[in-house]
Amino acid sequence: MKPQRMCVVCREMKEKDQLVRVVKTKESVAIDPTLRASGRGAYVCKSAECIKNAQKRGALERSFSMKISPEIYSALEAMVSDAE
Q1: Does residue 50 contact residue 36 with C-beta atoms inside 8 Å?
Q2: Which of 58, 84, 81, 82 is CA-nearest to residue 70?
Q3: What is the pTM of this model?
Q4: What is the spatial distance between Cα 49 and Cα 34, in angstroms, rounded to a whole number?
Q5: Alpha-carbon distances of 80 from 1, 13, 75, rounded to whole Å
């Protein structure tokens, strides 16, 4: 069985390779394509719907207790559209 994580938006348990990891370091918030960067991580489904809802509901802001820049959401949307 592969490792599973929960999407912070839809709250579904999925395998790690079906999710995108966003990581908060001391300096900033970034997308972690390797799934191994140090820092506080949050996972979002690789679906356009979950990413839109993450921005609308403030799921990443809640997970990291800080404001998330629109560039992060744009990068997530681009990553998902490339994967589809």
Answers
A1: no
A2: 58
A3: 0.93
A4: 23
A5: 25, 18, 9
DSSP letter for each residue of 43-74: EEESSHHHHHHHHHHTHHHHHHTS---HHHHH
| Rounded CA separation 1/21 (Å) | 20
The one-character DSSP state at 7 is: B
Q: In CATH terms, is domain 4-83 a member of 3.30.1230.10?
A: yes
Residues 71-83 have pLDDT tens digits of 999 999 999 988 7
Q: Are 46 and 78 in contact (CB under 8 A)?
A: no
pLDDT at 36: 94
Give 36's contacts (C-beta < 8 A, 6+ positions apart): none
Q: Hey, which residues does 41 pair with through a beta bridge?
A: 23
